[in-house]
Structures
1.
Amino acid sequence: METDRDSIVRIVSSLAGPIVDEAGFELVDMELAGRQGSYVLRLLIDKPGGVTINDCAQVNRELSSLLDLEDPIPSRYTLEVSSPGLDRPFKTERDFRRALGKRVKVVSADGNGGSVTRVGLLEGIEGGTVEIVSGGEKHRIPVASIRKAHRELEHGWDNG
């Protein structure tokens, strides 16, 4: 059964989608946090090459105007538009595809109840398997066995 919160998210998503798409971004995630009277509506947007603060401000202005007009949220709220951030966990294959060619950290089940952590270059994702090059070796990891995965920062001072 759909709750009021679910209904608000569905309506806002239908309003935000075209604005985000038209501006050349991808709506990565949306969350309605808090409670009635003090909601926080958070949108995460992304694009190849990353999102700037000006990009976030542009989407915020356009969406805020439309939300004021349509009024889908029956109380006070704060609208936040931001980029997903490097350390956002991967939830979908699309998240992995976005990180192709980048350094990632993947924690997966080892088959014995434990886990294996690999940090390396994400070289591919195909057929439900990701391929990571770490320490000169290629590792094929089934997506179904992945417990956590995210981009890993690359420090210029690491290569000494």
2.
Amino acid sequence: MNTTLSTAPGRHDHPPHESEQYQPNLPRRVSPLDRLALHVGVALIKWGRRPKPVESRERRANRVELELARLARESSTERSIRLSTPVR
């Protein structure tokens, strides 16, 4: 590693300078709208992180096989109906 970092002390302005209007002894009030926004945000995060059921590979394979079997039955039924109806 050939990078050399400076050892000179840097500026430390954090936190920014306080103004005369700031009064540290008074409690800060949170508006009802801010409180509602916080609750909605937390609810959305919880909803987004909810556990989703994971379908197993075997269950997916069974579902596909059942769908193919249903399609085969429907086509077989349709074919038998077309063959059994009289020609016009």
3.
Amino acid sequence: MIVYWSEEDQAYIAQVPELDSCMADGATYQEAVKNVEQVIAEWLEIAVELGRYVPGSKGRLLYA
């Protein structure tokens, strides 16, 4: 997870590079992390439903 301040958005942005287009924002660092944790859960759920691969730990890929 990468968290940074965006001047343009005036918010913290949390990105998960291993999960395509998985990101969220928040007014605080903690809020951005909390929000992206929810987005991660939703991303994984949808990937499994669609039968797409899910990145695993240590670079392995898990297939749904």
